[in-house]
Write a structure and sequence with these properties.
Blueprint lengths: L2 E5 L3 H12 L3 E6 L5 H9 L3 E4 L4 H4 L4 E4 L8 H8 L4 E3 H6 L5 E6 L4 H14 L4 E5 L5 H7 L4 E5 L2 H5 L8 E4 L14 H9 L10 E5 L3 H7 L7 E6 L7 E5 L2 E6 L2 E6 L8 H16 L4 H10 L8 E6 L2 E5 L6 H9 L5 E5 L12 H7 E7 L4 H7 L5 E5 L2 H11 L5 E4 L12 H13 L2
Parallel strand pairs: 1-2, 1-4, 2-3, 4-5, 6-8, 6-9, 7-8, 9-10, 10-11, 11-12, 16-20, 17-18, 17-20, 18-19
Antiparallel strand pairs: 12-13, 13-14, 15-16
Helix pairs in contact: 1-7, 6-11, 6-12, 16-17
């Protein structure tokens, strides 16, 4: 078997290393940073050789294939060296997909991915299907392929994961929406990012289904340029569709072949316009999988939501604190602000990904009393929003941001952490940012 080199010692890297080992490859894992104790113990258990704190060229450039973690950009020097040697570079999803015979339901989009993936997994579990949850969520897909045996996988796929996928094929692909995000990784070219998202449809056949939002202009404008053999199933809140899902008389109506399902939107456990879209995408998927209507209803009325996504933390002195740390781009923050019904103290900022904040202007003028900047460099937020709100504050930790919010909040306000930015300047990831925010609120 060939030598497989894994770059990155996080969840996806270690999972890929274990799968490569199980399949009989010679394996080496290299991480430029430090590897967690838990990951080291797992690699020692599986007798996988690794290094941390460096990339040793002679141990990497003799690979037959490199599996790259999604967090490593193509611009990293080591990737340039690997490509110069003409060594193929693939993602964990591509690698694991080779060894997985299950049916794959794959979800991507700039916003709503985790919620929709979680709803689909929840309803499939409720239907009694033997299903795994992986991708950008849960345990590594590669590790599960190495150690489990599922009939189905529900995979949340980011654009970075899709970029390294070539022969992988989804049986059901869901594209929720496309809005500007991660443009720093795509040479600030929106078109590059769009093409990346549409990779979810590659290799699909006539017997596969592509579920997409008919109200998303970018998705629709690119549909016909991209060769799609799959059966197209749109969902829409603005118009009727023949097959797929649409909104009529405050009801979601779902049709697929001779199967139908209707439910009132006020029955959904997750409220808000964006969650109607997420629930529609999940309901269409459920119908394609022939899941019974009563299971669909029970799942969509009881699903509890996702941590760090508009998560109500606590009320303190009649001020509600909401953790939307997963709001890492302008569009998801737009949804968060749009759903607020009280005056808002907005905690924003982090690593700016080339953001255009103009879609937020009306909502900020209308709803936000104060902005608390939480980032290593807050200049852009000040330039954009100064004068739109009564006051702006700079903070450099979740604890400090919560203390400032507590000192200025008035009864009836909502303190909303919805950063519109990545977390990598002050935090390991958005989960850590959300967790520290919740801890700080609980310590008030």
């Amino acid at each position: 078997m060939s030598r497989v080199v894994i770059l990155g010692g996080g969840e996806s890297g270690v999972g890929s290393a274990v799968l490569a080992k199980v399949k009989g490859h010679e394996v080496f894992l290299s991480d430029n940073g430090m590897i967690s104790q838990e990951a080291k113990e797992l690699m020692e258990k599986w007798e996988i050789s690794y290094e941390e704190g460096r990339h040793t060229r002679e141990l990497i450039l003799n690979a037959g294939e490199v599996v790259k973690s999604p967090g490593i950009p193509d611009s990293a020097p080591i990737i340039g060296d690997i490509r110069e040697k003409k060594i193929p570079v693939i993602s964990e999803i591509e690698f694991a997909g080779r060894y997985d015979r299950s049916k794959k339901i794959c979800i991507t989009g700039s916003n709503g991915k985790t919620t929709t993936t979680s709803i689909i997994y929840f309803l499939m579990k409720n239907a009694g299907l033997n299903v795994g949850l992986a991708g950008n969520i849960g345990q590594s897909y590669a590790y599960q392929v190495a150690t489990q045996n599922y009939d189905y996988y529900v995979l949340e796929l980011s654009s970075f994961q899709l970029d390294g996928m070539y022969d992988f094929k989804a049986d059901i692909a869901v594209l929720l929406n496309i809005t500007p995000d991660h443009l720093d990784r795509y040479n600030n070219q929106m078109e590059n990012y769009i093409m990346s998202k549409f990779r979810i449809t590659q290799n699909m056949s006539e017997s596969d289904c592509f579920i997409f939002c008919a109200d998303d202009e970018i998705s629709i404008s690119h549909l016909n340029n991209i060769v799609l053999k799959a059966k197209q199933l749109p969902f829409s809140q603005e118009k009727r569709v023949e097959e797929g899902a649409y909104l009529e008389d405050k009801q979601i109506k779902v049709k697929y072949e001779d199967r139908e399902y209707n439910m009132f939107i006020n029955e959904l456990s997750l409220q808000g316009k964006h969650n109607i879209y997420n629930s529609m995408a999940a309901a269409v998927t459920g119908k394609v999988l022939n899941i019974r209507n009563e299971v669909l209803r029970q799942s969509l009325t009881t699903f509890q939501g996702v941590e760090h996504r508009l998560e109500k933390v606590l009320k303190v002195k009649n001020v509600l604190y909401i953790n939307d740390s997963k709001g890492t781009n302008v569009n998801s923050t737009w949804y968060a602000l749009e759903s607020m019904t009280t005056p808002v103290i907005w905690i924003a900022g982090g690593k700016d990904k080339g953001n255009d904040y103009s879609p937020l202007f009306d909502l900020v003028k209308d709803k936000v009393r104060a902005i608390i900047c939480l980032g290593a460099d807050n200049r852009k937020l000040h330039e954009v929003f100064e004068g739109m709100v009564d006051s702006m504050y700079d903070t450099s930790s979740a604890e400090e941001a919560v203390k400032v919010a507590y000192s200025i909040a008035q009864p009836g306000d909502t303190v909303l952490l919805s950063p519109a930015c990545a977390s990598f300047d002050l935090f390991k990831n958005y989960e850590e940012r959300g967790r520290l925010f919740k801890e700080a609120v609980k310590n008030l």
